[in-house]
UniProtKB/TrEMBL annotation:
Keywords: DNA-binding, Transcription, Transcription regulation. Residues 41-60 bind DNA. This is Transcriptional regulator. PANTHER family: HTH-TYPE TRANSCRIPTIONAL REGULATOR RUTR, TRANSCRIPTIONAL REGULATORY PROTEIN (PROBABLY TETR-FAMILY)-RELATED. It holds the Pfam family TetR_C_46. Residues 18-78 form the HTH tetR-type domain.
Length: 211
């Protein structure tokens, strides 16, 4: 039986510059999440993307450049998700529930991105990209809390303190939940709200230390 001759090899589909850039970012994102900035290399990014190193340099100038774009993209995504979930018309309890849900949704659906952010700057750190992001979120929450504090006779100047406490609590819980994934997301949100709201619902106007 005569063998069928093989045809010419299929032509390799060339990516546009935009498609290549997106592919390199996706590859780098996964690698940074897996190994961190120091553990990743341009060589491995290029290898996983199936390109030569000069292609990566052409698009981003080096490892620092592609890392900065990856981090900025993740920060924008998370900040937009959380701020979009909040409004001045919300009851404070709903505010907390929406903020916690938005963060845990991001942890759940963008796990690599969250790993990159917290590896670069853990929640408890005073500096770094994630701390800067949390500060931006806290500023947004502070503004909304300030409106509620003023209308209820509390000192609006303390809204910043409470915003930092609430955002920090949710962020630390999100970092813990990143790996354990138990209990389920909705239950974590419910317990966060339970802790915060049942503590906030009976605030003293001028608390004093008890010694």
């Amino acid at each position: 039986m005569r063998r069928k001759e093989a045809g010419p090899p299929a032509a390799r589909v060339r990516m546009t510059g935009t498609q290549r850039r997106r592919q390199l970012l996706d590859v780098a994102r996964a690698l940074f999440a897996e190994k961190g900035f120091d553990g990743a290399s341009i060589e491995e990014i290029a290898h996983r993307a199936g390109v030569s190193k000069p292609v990566v340099y052409e698009h981003f100038g080096g490892k620092e450049g592609i890392y900065a774009v990856v981090v900025d993209r993740e920060m924008d995504q998370l900040l937009s998700a959380i701020t979009a979930s909040l409004s001045e018309e919300m009851h404070p309890r709903t505010l907390l529930e929406h903020a916690a849900t938005a963060l845990l949704d991001y942890v759940d659906l963008s796990t690599d991105g969250f790993r990159i952010l917290v590896r670069d700057s853990p929640v408890a750190s005073a500096t770094g990209t994630f701390s800067s992001l949390l500060s931006d979120i806290a500023s947004h929450v502070e503004h909304i809390l300030g409106v509620h504090f003023s209308s209820r006779g509390y000192d609006a100047k303390l809204a910043g303190l409470y915003a930092q406490a609430l955002v920090g609590m949710v962020a630390l819980t999100g970092q813990w939940w990143l790996d354990v994934r138990k209990p389920r997301k909705a239950d974590v949100v419910a317990h966060l709200v339970n802790l915060a709201w049942n503590g906030l619902s009976h605030l003293e106007h001028k608390p004093k230390p008890r010694r």
